[in-house]
Amino acid sequence: MSTEGHTQWWVATLGRTVIWARLRVREAGTAEVFDSDGNTLPYDSEDTARAALLDAEFVEFDGLDEDDAEARGFLMEELVPPHAGDDEGLKALMVQQLPSRH
Known about the structure:
The protein has 102 residues and is an alpha+beta fold. Helix content is 22%, strand content 29%. It has one domain (7-86).
């Protein structure tokens, strides 16, 4: 279980397309997910938010290893969670197209 105020990155893949989601757990124990459409979705708990992400076929980025990455068609070093000064800037980075592997 993560600590309050903690941010987790989650990832889903479709071929060489990577879709990110950011899960934040608030001090009150509620959670919110910033999705690839730029929406912030509120949840009553971290568990509920995690369940929603898992249902949408996301996996927690910190839980991935090289074998998991290879099974999804990419290398771990290809994946870096997006970073921007604010959520508006982050929105454009939440879906990434990785270059083709030869």
